[in-house]
């Protein structure tokens, strides 16, 4: 297998513990308990039914309107085509409020892995369907993180944000096709100047893993929500619960492997 030349990162659930799941869940709850309460009994929705598993399998990784429609279809909400825009709008308003309030954290294992891939000579890109990815990435100071965690790297400089660190930023764009279509990842590889077969994608959603494989790329599935089976079934070449478990030395040789205990 050829050496990896590019690494493409999803954002929500991979790099940051984002409030997207919370926003999707709570905005639907708000609708069902107010303006949509008249149809509630005609749906399969209940306050406890919108689980993390449902979010990961049906909503995560998809563009906003596709995610909104997937959730409404899952809960058999009638007249979904005429309700989807309102749901998507309320979710977006809520997620922006949560992000601006600092209601998210960067995953330390992911930041270590981002630095390790760049130190290994790879070009790196962020590629998220989310329009909010930039809001996260420009709030994360990579130089501060490295200093706090004792990481020394020739690729870091003072004042560097995570957004600055990426060689290509293709998050939040309007693509003709959302994941599981590979368009977003193929665009990222193109902008990095890397052939798809020499790129790897790091994803937490099954739709994202499917997109990577459809684009002829390697895929690492990060199972932060106990969904390793979903990621494996989607075709991930390697599934881990923390990116610290990925053998970065093996990556240099073009292999995806976990560190030996």
H/E element string?
A: EEHHHHEHEHHHEHEHEHEH
The biggest beta sheet is recorded as: 6 strands, parallel
CATH top level label of the largest domain:
Alpha Beta
State the end-to-end CA separation. 24 Å
User: How would you classify the helix and strand content by structural class?
Assistant: alpha/beta
Oligomer: single chain
Question: Low-confidence stretches at least 5 residues in length (pLDDT < 50)?
Answer: none
Mean pLDDT across all amino acids: 94
Describe the structure.
With 261 residues, the chain is of the alpha/beta class. It contains 12 helices and 8 strands. It has helices at residues 20-32, 52-59, 64-74, 80-100, 108-119, 133-137, 142-148, 162-165, 183-192, 206-214, 228-233, 248-252, and strands at 6-9, 16-17, 105-106, 123-126, 168-169, 199-203, 218-222, 238-240. The radius of gyration is 19 Å and the shape is globular. The mean pLDDT is 94.
Task: Output the keywords.
DNA polymerase, domain 1; six-stranded parallel sheet; Rossmann fold; 261 residues
